[in-house]
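Quick one: structure for this chain?
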Amino acid sequence: MQGMADLLLRNVRLATLAGGVRRGAAMNDLALRDGVDVRIVDGRIAEIGPEVSGDGEDCGGRLLTPGLIDVHTHLIFGGCRAGEFAHRCQGATYEQIAAAGGGIRSTLRQTAECDDLVAIGRKHLDWMLANGTTTLEAKSGYAMTSPGEIAILEAYRDLAEQGPQRIVPTLLGLHAVPVGMDREAWVAEVCDHLIPEVARRGLAKYVDAFVEQGYFTLDDARLLALAAGKAGLGMRLHVDQLTAGGGAELAVSLGASTADHLEQTGRAGIAALADSKTMPVLLPASVYALRKSKYPDARAMIDAGLPVVLATDFNPGSSPTPSLLFVMNLACVMMGMSPAEALSACTINAAASLGLDTGIGSIEVGKRADLVLWDADDPAQIAYWIGAPLVKRVWIGGSELRM
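Got it. Here's what it folds into:
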């Protein structure tokens, strides 16, 4: 990363996303400005206008957007599960693979064998940066021992200190039940010991749980919420992914910042979310990779006025993609979202779901200069081109990244 310097970008087509969180029809409003200049001073947006004075770089009318924000990732894990992918291509289900010893437990074994978690995370961060991601949430969850979970969160701390991306860490203590351990005992270990220690050391902003048949129950999530509240941590939840279990309503009742997945969420869950501050985070790449057909009902959510968020769910099993560009395309093709809605969901709405929208997620004077210059002049092209190298330049805090 180059050192921070003042910068003037001339002649850009600017998707500012100014004006705050987008809900309903407003998700189509990117607050576009054509042929403008953007001045960056001390890592922040200092001036936006048609004729900003000074020497600058002509961007040729290319599109400039806020950096993309990925709010649901499992950044650090050992190995991969390409063999399971091959089995799924031959018809095996996620549940069948898990029952045979694969799935999350396979990654637990491979992660335990890793001796450099930071190097793994760095590789994955580089993949994300090449796809325009400048801020991300990163979950633990692939250790299932208290020391192992702490080690992953410590790796996130080290990566965040090294930069360039901002990392928001989440303790996903209730991801799976450790082999040979009683579920209730593991929930007690996480709530009574792991959460207080993580909070004491400042290693996480949120806690999370996989609420699903065969994993963790609604009551387990309630115990987690109580422990998180005492420790001063927020909550995010994996809910309604494989079965309709009232997960959206649970997330609302617990005051969770987000309810993630929501493939099985129906009208009651959408209504509950609409009457709450809990934001829906949709993960279409996991539906695609698991060869399932039921995607979250994004259109119903947007029509109900929800501030929809999109994320990759980057992980080795059910969503092996670091690309929000691919996710945006899936959201448009498979969930009926417009390209503008998809971009809103990966910028200002994503920032709000992390409590960071006052500083990032849009291009406004005073905000941090996390920016992507695209090899495109139309925002729709970001979701339209599949696999094309559209990211031309990236800045984080006003410093350009060489990729």
